[in-house]
Amino acid sequence: xxxxxxxxxxxTPSALLSLDGVIRALNAAMATQxxxxxxxxxxxxxxxxxxxxxxxxxxxxxxxxxxxxxxxxRVLEFPGSSTATVVCLIEARAVTDSSTGERLxxxxxxxATHDLYGLLIPFQLAxxxxxxxxxxxxxxxxxxxxxxxxxxxxLFPQASVPLSKMIRRVHPxxxxxxxxxxxxxxxxxxxxxLRFLTERDGWRVLAGQVRRIQxxxxxxxxxxxxxxxxxxSQARHQETLAEASAARxxxxxxxxxSSALFSASTEQRLQQVVLARLAAAVGGCGALFAxxxxxxxxxxxxxGIPAWEVDALLGLSxxxxxxxxxxxxTGQAQFFSSQExxxxxxxxxxxxxLPRSAxxxxxxxxxxxxxxxxxxxxxxxxxxxxxxxxxxxxxxLTTLAELAGQALKxxxxxxxxxxxxVALQESxxxxxxxxxxxxxxxxxxxxxxxGMDVGGDWYDxxxxxxxxxxxxxxxxxxxxxDAAVFMGQVRLSMRAIAAHEPxxxxxxxxxxxxxxxxxxxxxxxxxxxxxxxxxGQIVGTSAGHVPLLQAHGNGxxxxxxxxxxxxxxxxxxxxxxxxxxxLEEGTVLVMVTDGVVEGPRLTLDAGLERVGALAGRAxxxxxxxEATADLLLDAVAAVDHLDDVAVLVIRRA
Length: 653
Hints:
Elements: E1 2-3, H1 5-8, E2 14-17, E3 23-26, H2 28-33, H3 38-41, H4 55-67, E4 72-78, E5 85-97, E6 103-109, H5 121-129, E7 133-138, E8 142-148, H6 150-153, E9 160-162, H7 163-168, H8 175-182, E10 192-197, E11 203-215, E12 221-229, H9 235-263, H10 267-281, E13 286-293, E14 296-301, H11 307-313, H12 323-330, E15 334-336, H13 339-345, E16 362-367, E17 377-383, H14 391-428, E18 439-446, E19 457-463, E20 469-476, H15 481-498, H16 504-517, E21 524-531, E22 537-543, E23 548-551, E24 557-560, E25 579-582, E26 588-592, H17 594-597, H18 604-620, H19 625-634, E27 645-652
Parallel strand pairs: 1-5, 5-11
Antiparallel strand pairs: 2-3, 2-6, 4-5, 5-6, 7-8, 7-12, 8-9, 10-11, 11-12, 13-14, 13-17, 15-16, 16-17, 18-27, 19-20, 20-21, 21-22, 22-25, 23-24, 23-26, 26-27
Helix pairs in contact: 9-10, 9-14, 14-15, 15-16, 18-19
């Protein structure tokens, strides 16, 4: 991948680092997340700008991202503002600076809005390891228990309780402390002690510390309370409570994990869910996700598995005599409680990510198999000590793997449907004439990046009976096969009408009447231009489509709004007004669909300015129409729009 400014033009936090972790460049979102200005961050070590307890995780992530060919992800906590820290799922991967050839590491925040609770896993693991508890104050004055020490979980038999109910169980003299904990003024408070009345053991002395955390970049802020039990209780009672808490946590984990799996609409999101949750859900220290492409392994891992182990598996044939290929061929799960057992049962251990420097390391390999079907992949979990799972743990792991296999099967069926739909749509898009006298034209089309739908964007360019050239761009309503078919009908209808009535306003008016008469269930936006190549005169009209852009030789640009008319297929008897203007020599005209200039975090006006500025620089730099079209299409990634897109670039020859 080439490192370029586009990597920093994302709306989410993004930074480019040297291989030793020094920040070379970053966007404003990343600087805000680090709690500093861009100038205060550039030239400093990325790890040094994080909290001390985050540095080991961050160092491992950067090392993994710089050296592996796979994916490296970690949940990291950033300083943020004075009132809240920010927790994000961060990806690190190696990139190459196209201008200098230097190897860099690109770190950026992934979208975790579909799995906000996955961001809390490191906190849940930390409090559990420290024998503490963790709860969250939710909107609506509700307190939700998030896990931790089993003995503390027993104090809150219900997973979610109203704050008022919890306050009633606090000693009257300490209730003001609870209210201060629930509404902190700073990002972190000191430990505060209070007396809490339990249902069975009477009064206990608890200590709480508040942390205000923002879940993901631009995500919601929540108040979390870390709880410490400062009283002693009987060992038998602790064991009973621990067993009940563990059972509840297992049930909660499988529910949360399965929900996250089935909310993942693509293989990439499924992989993200697995790598963010799997190791923590089963008590492991690392996780690897493996699929097969043409009989060879394609793998991704979290940062808990050494990069060299991951690299050794990339491209490995399924015919190899190793544990991981064996599981993916046969569907038979494998578990090794130690490295000694691996060496005894599988000499050499090829095809298995197991650190040779840790003789006590255990590993499990589970096929991702929809029930009763062949495996579609496998996942691997490593443990940092000798480990023999109970039958319940093995059943839990198998159940999760079957759910992942079913989700993977669903994603692939949907992807096959989309690929067929895209092929249908592309077959309906025209091939431009080899030569349009007096004009240079370049066109680009890109299907939806979401991978689940096909849209109805189209373009066209053809000769008119009067010797002029007709140019069209449009967008049919919908994102399915029917939208692609409807798009083809509209485009062919406009061609047929233009063969007899080349005037753009007449073409749109008659096309609209045809669609209304057909009682078409959809509508379409469109811009049509009548271009005279001899003098550059253009007559244009629009049916609810986005404006045109004109880029000039001095690097400036103009947004040209054609007289508005309603979209095609809705209002009978519509007459479409026209506008006449001239395409001067040395000027480029750009026609786009809305996916190029609109996105979740980008308004139409801002998007038009952005694309116009890019086109202006291209003309100033004397780029050809083909290079200009490529530049504008490459910029679509920063818009974060899921729709398909079309770009048409025109210049007088």
